[in-house]
Amino acid sequence: GSGKTTLVAKTFNDERVKKQFHCCAWLTVSQTYVIDDLFRSLIKEFHEANKEKVPAGMKTMTYRQLLQVLVNYLEYKRYMVVLDDVWDIKLWKEIWIALPNTKRGSRIMLTTRREDVASYCFGVQSHIHHIQPLEKNDAWELFSRKAFSAYQNKCCPPDLQSLAEQLVKKCEGLPLAVVALGGLMSNKEPFEWKQVYNSLDSHLTKPLPGRVENILFLSFDDLPYPLKHCFLYCSLFPEDYPIRRK
Q1: Residue range of the domain that includes 207
Q2: What is the CB neighbour count within 10 angstroms for residue 175?
Q3: Which InterPro entries match (predicted)?
Q4: Inter-axis angle of helices 161-170 and 193-204, to 10 degrees?
Q5: 128 in a domain, yes or no?
Q6: CA dist., res. 172 & res. 211, Å (int)
């Protein structure tokens, strides 16, 4: 919820950055992964980004075959790879062999919420960028854009100013928490704001870990009953699984 993925995505999707590399790929790793599937995703991303035909029979390739395809493809290229949401140092130990050091200025960006992963010596020159919470004014501006989108100039009404500032303070500068709470408040009438504030205080005393999770739980709690069922149904899908819609 601190904006790690958003920051890296802004860099990764910048055409000025992409022009510096022969090929680019983005991998969302998460807590559970299969290394063969990550190799397949890398191959697919590299080829599709360059509008090249993806190698045939990739689904049935063995680990060694997939590894050979990747090494051969990257051998003379300058590449950029993002490994998003890494939870375990083990990933690097498994994937580095497929990302050859071609000494051409390739870059690997990794996002993680774990300090031990970020500070691990990966055998290459590395730099850690710690995401800082939003400044008070930035958090307020972000909250206002969400909570007061229907108001004139997206400005907070004077009668809600004090309560709104207290709500933003509860988010402790975490962008996801600010956006989630702002979205929740955008549908509330002025007389309901105090109720939400009291309810938020109640949720923050519960043992549910993390400030963002507590605020997201409050948003879930506020959903109409049918939507809660829909939300819980979606949670049955594996993490990062693409859910189709009609």
Answers
A1: 136-234
A2: 21
A3: Apaf_helical, Disease_R_plants, NB-ARC, P-loop_NTPase, WH-like_DNA-bd_sf
A4: 20
A5: no
A6: 8
